[in-house]
Amino acid sequence: MHLDYRLSENWDSDPVFLLAADETEFRYYAFAGDIILRKAQTDLSTHWGWVPLVDFAIGLRDIAASIEAGIAAARTFEFTESDATLEFERLGAEITVRSSYAPGKIVLPSTEFRKQALDFGRRLDMELLSRLPELRQNAAYQALKLSGLSD
Amino acid sequence: MSRIRVGSPIPALSWAAWIALIAIFGSVGNAGAQDAANVVDRSQVVISERAIHHIMVRHWPDSPAAGAGKYAPGMTADLLRQMVDETVENGRSRENTNGRPGRIYEYDFGHPIGIKVNGRPAYRLRVVVNDRNELVTAFPF
Question: Which residue in B68, B100, B141 is closest to A55 by CB distance?
Answer without folding.
Answer: B100
